[in-house]
Structures are given as structure tokens and as C-alpha cells.
């Protein structure tokens, strides 16, 4: 948890908004991959890698938010 605490909010938010959403047009890449996952179309390895790459910043943001709101967790 120290590693999560040591990362600044600014860096986490910038990563989520840039890497987490890029490319921005025609729709954010993470959104496309989540729709593919829900439809059962996420079958290629590169698609799973994309989901991981674009999803990690959002997971870190969520974990950091939970850690901040519940410091005892």
C-alpha cells in the first residue's frame, strides 16, 4: 500500500485521462474494449493486452480513491 500512497493524485488522474482513454476518437479505447468484453468478442491476445493497458490507470485511480476514503482498509 505504500506504493499506492506514494503516487500523487495528479499523476494518477493524468494517466487515467490520457492513457486510460486514448485514442479519444471515435470513442475511448477502454470503452470499446469493455463493450467487446461484454459481448464476448474479446478473443485476440492483443485485445486483452489493450484492455489491461488502458484499464490499469482506472484500477489504480479506484484503489487510490478507496484507500484515501477508507484509510483503515
- The computed structural class is mainly alpha
Report low-confidence residues grouped into runs of 5 or more.
none
First-to-last CA distance: 10 Å
Q: What does the main sheet amount to?
A: none
Number of strands: 0
Question: What is the overall pLDDT average?
Answer: 89
The number of helical segments is 4
Beta fraction: under 5%
Domain tally: 1
Cα-based radius of gyration, to the nearest Å: 14 Å
Transmembrane segments: 6-26
Keywords: Membrane, Transmembrane, Transmembrane helix
Protein name: RND transporter
What descriptive keywords fit this protein?
73 residues; elongated; 70% helix; mainly alpha
Question: What's the topology here?
Answer:
Blueprint: H1 2-6, H2 9-18, H3 29-39, H4 45-69
Helix pairs in contact: 2-4, 3-4
Q: If you had to describe this structure to a student in words, what would you say it looks like?
A:
This is RND transporter. It comes from Shimia thalassica. The chain crosses the membrane at residues 6-26. The protein is mainly alpha-helical. It has one domain (2-69). It contains four helices and no strands. Helix 2 packs antiparallel against helix 4 and helix 3 crosses helix 4 (45-69). It is elongated, with a radius of gyration of 14 Å. The mean pLDDT is 89.
Briefly characterize the structure.
With 73 residues, the protein is mainly α. It contains 4 helices and no strands.
Amino acid at each position: 500500500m505504500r506504493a499506492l500512497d506514494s503516487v500523487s493524485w495528479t499523476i494518477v488522474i493524468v494517466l487515467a485521462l490520457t492513457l486510460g482513454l486514448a485514442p479519444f476518437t471515435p470513442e475511448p479505447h477502454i470503452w470499446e474494449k469493455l463493450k467487446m468484453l461484454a459481448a464476448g468478442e474479446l478473443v485476440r491476445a492483443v485485445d486483452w493486452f489493450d484492455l489491461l493497458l488502458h484499464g490499469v490507470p482506472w484500477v489504480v485511480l479506484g484503489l487510490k480513491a478507496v484507500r484515501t476514503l477508507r484509510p483503515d482498509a
